[in-house]
Structures are given as C-alpha cells and as structure tokens.
C-alpha cells in the first residue's frame, strides 16, 4: 500500500513538472534559460519603430535585437496599440514594452522601468500657414495626439479634454491637420521631424518645447531578473557606443 502511494505521488510530481512548462504563445521570463522574449511595441512611430515593407525597423527594433543578443535571447515583436502596451506587459502576454515610451510616475505604478536610453521633447506641429506661434496660442484650439501618449496626457491636462482629438496613430493626426479638421499636433520631437520631412511644405514645428522626457523599457512589476539583465545590456551598449551608432543611423 505504501509503495502504491509513493508511486502515485511520483506520478503526480512528474505530471506537475511537465505542466509547469511553457505553453506556446506565452511570454517566458521567469526561468534562467529563456531563449525568446516577446517585446510589444506600436510600430507607428518613426524613427523609433515603424514598418518598412513587411519588416519592423527603427531605433527600438534594432536596440532590442542587440540587447537580445547581449542577454542570449531572441526578441519577437508584437505590434499593438500604444495604450495596450502596459496592460500587455502587466498581464504577461509580452515580456517587455519598448516603444519610445516615456518614464512617468503614473506608469511606474503599473510597470518597472529600466535605465533610460534616449531623451525626447514633446513638440508642437502646426500647418505651415498657421498663426499658432507658441504654446499659449494653443488655448481653445483643437490639438491632435496619439491616444494614451504623454502628449495626450499633458494636453488633456493643460487644454481640456474637449480640445484634444485622439488618434490611434499620430500620422492620422497630421492628415487631420492638413485637411483643416484640427489646428495642431503634439508629438515627440524626432517623430515630428520625421513625419514633417516627408511633407515639409505642409507643416512647421514650433521652436518652443512643450515637455522634456526620457525613454525606457517597461517590464512587469517585480520582474527584477529581466530588469537587471536589460539594465546591464543598456549600460553596456551606452558605454560601448553601440547605442549611439544605431541612433545615428536613424537620426541625422
Ligand atoms: N513618448 C510618448 C509616450 O511615452 C509617445 C510614445 C509613442 N510611441 C509609439 N510607439 N507610438 O507616451
């Protein structure tokens, strides 16, 4: 009887061990041997992440691959809406979010951020014939932002919900501005420059900076194992100049 019991126990243990393995499609980080990391992003944000042909390209895409190499993991990209990034990390469907994401105190309540890897400035873009010349002129104007971004949060706070028009991607905001539906867009400086450069005669970028920020990678709260690996890799590519090399390729 005792033998039978211990046999049953060992079978149970084996079953338990096997079912602890990873189901495909789920993010893997809790074990040392993780070989694949899922990075969620929103590839509507040139030069940080965008699609070229069918491929994901941009600073974050290249930096994430390089970081993956450093920590011995293959990085797989999951392209989703910007305002779904944090929930996707907290639910564990992705291991980390990298999307030109600004570190904010509010976001820190939901995710942990790595060391920062880039700085950015929220910038105001207006149609080239606009009379808007400074941030104060934005009062009462219709401002386009990408939904859930810091541009959205700041503009909603400063100019009121009714004056903010939210788009799933900021290029749609630029189109709306071109057709006269809205008066301005607020977006990160390098993205503003990138989009304006495709259609330089239609827009101008105001000189006054709206807000300064820093980008970092977000991981699930408490995932210190991954956080530490990412931090180490970020520090390394900063010192080695590898980060700068990628940035310089995309930002002239
Ligand atoms: N830096 C801004 C933020 O964190 C905008 C980021 C938008 N990124 C993107 N991939 N669409 O809110």
Overview of this protein structure:
This protein has 252 residues and is of the alpha/beta class. It folds into two domains: 36-117 and 216-250, D-Maltodextrin-Binding Protein, domain 2 (3-Layer(aba) Sandwich), CATH 3.40.190.10; 120-212, Periplasmic binding protein-like II (D-Maltodextrin-Binding Protein, domain 2, 3-Layer(aba) Sandwich), CATH 3.40.190. It is 38% helix and 23% strand. It contains nine helices and 13 strands. It has helices spanning 2-19, 59-71, 85-90, 105-108, 150-159, 170-178, 189-197, 224-240, 242-250; strands at residues 36-41, 50-52, 55-57, 74-79, 96-97, 111-113, 118-127, 143-146, 164-167, 184-188, 203-205, 211-215, 218-220. Strands 7, 8, 9, 10, 11 and 12 form a six-stranded mixed beta sheet that branches. The chain has a five-stranded mixed beta sheet with strand order 4-1-5-13-6. The longest helix is centred in the N-terminal third of the chain and has 18 residues, at 2-19. The chain is globular and about 55 Å long. Residues 1-5 and 7-25 have low confidence and may be disordered. Residues 41-42, 44-45, 48-49, 82, 99-102, 120, 146, 149-150, 188 line the site of arginine. The site of arginine has 16 residues, from loops.
Provide a brief overview of the structure.
The chain is α/β, with parallel strands linked by helices and 252 residues long. It has 9 helices and 13 strands.
* Molecules bound to protein: arginine
- How would a crystallographer describe the biggest sheet? 6 strands, mixed
Strand content: 15-25%
**First and last CA, distance:** 77 Å
Could you name the ranges where pLDDT drops below 50 across 5 or more consecutive residues?
Answer: 1-5, 7-25
Supply Rg: 22 Å
Q: Estimate nothing, just give the exact number of structural domains.
A: 2
The number of E-state strands comes to: 13
Using the coordinates shown, work out and report the CATH topology of the largest domain: D-Maltodextrin-Binding Protein, domain 2
CATH architecture of the largest domain: 3-Layer(aba) Sandwich
Query: Which structural class do you get from the secondary structure elements?
Result: alpha/beta
**Total helix count?**
9
């Amino acid at each position: 009887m005792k033998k039978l019991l211990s046999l049953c126990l060992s079978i149970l243990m084996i079953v338990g061990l096997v079912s602890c393995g990873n189901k495909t499609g789920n993010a893997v980080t809790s074990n040392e041997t993780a070989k694949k990391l899922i990075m969620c992003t929103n590839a509507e944000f040139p030069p940080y992440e965008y699609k070229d042909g069918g491929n994901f390209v941009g600073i974050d895409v290249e930096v994430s691959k390089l970081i993956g190499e450093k920590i011995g993991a293959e990085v797989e990209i999951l392209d989703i809406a910007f305002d779904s990034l944090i929930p996707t990390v907290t639910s564990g469907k992705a291991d980390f979010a990298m999307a030109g994401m600004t570190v904010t105190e509010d976001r820190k309540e939901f995710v942990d951020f790595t060391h920062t890897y880039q700085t950015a400035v929220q910038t105001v873009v207006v149609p080239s014939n606009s009379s808007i010349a400074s941030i104060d002129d934005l009062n009462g104007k219709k401002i386009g932002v990408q939904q859930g971004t810091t541009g959205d949060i700041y503009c909603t706070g400063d100019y009121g919900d009714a004056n903010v028009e939210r788009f799933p991607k900021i290029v749609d905001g630029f189109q709306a501005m071109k057709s006269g539906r809205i008066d301005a867009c607020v977006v990160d400086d390098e993205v503003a420059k990138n989009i304006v450069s495709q259609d330089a005669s239609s827009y101008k970028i105001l000189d006054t900076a709206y807000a300064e920020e820093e980008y970092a990678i977000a991981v699930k709260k408490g995932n210190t194992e991954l956080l530490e690996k990412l931090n180490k890799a970020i520090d390394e590519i900063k010192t080695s100049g590898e980060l700068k090399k990628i940035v310089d390729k995309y930002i002239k």
